[in-house]
Write a structure and sequence with these properties.
Blueprint: H1 2-9, H2 30-75, H3 84-131, H4 135-174, H5 184-198, H6 213-241
Amino acid sequence: MTPIVKILVSGEKTFPLDMKFPFDATSKFTYPLVLLWTDWNLINGLIIFFATDVLLYGFIRIISIEFEIIQHNFENLNLTESSDELKTLICHQNDLYDVCIKLEGIFSLTFFYKFIISSFVICFTAFQCSTSSDTSKIIVNMTICIANFNQIGLQCFFGQMLKNASENVTNSIYNCQWENTTNMKVKKSLMICITRSNRHVALTALKFSEITFEQLTYILTSTYSYFTLLRQIYNSMGTKHE
């Protein structure tokens, strides 16, 4: 979007990448075609870049749906007839926890990297917006800032979804009318399920923190602190030059 913004603001013809061509790419007839070609290549690159995120969000949504199915089955469980359905639910629950552990192991390092990079990018782009007088640069930096915020915001949204889905299983088990059965073996199994459900599953950034809305709040608070520090340094340097 940078070249389009510059054309609308200042009329300058540029490309999203610093590329050289064996012909005049900024002429009236070739510029739209070359710009369309470079944008098409960048769009393909962005699709490949975000493919892992989309795959992750799909996995989390499927796992959350499976947790909701378990909740519904526990709430409608008839313990007076047979415990076979209970065994099936316990196995299903354990399988979901194993999948979450594997998923967290795959993406944990990626979360850690993205949160650090995105927080610094948001901080520096916001700082450039506050110190620049060029409208096109402000729009470009704001676009980058919003894109990074959306990326970590989506990750925290789906991370919170997974955590909530796993935590809600505990209430569903407790509401399965366990008091109507006299089978002590079934009651012990339900106690084990509740104990296991109290240890909710969540995605983490290398075990440092869980990927939730609370983590998003912490990132934004830290980013604002870095931004304030940069502004103070910038203002103090400007005062010294004066």
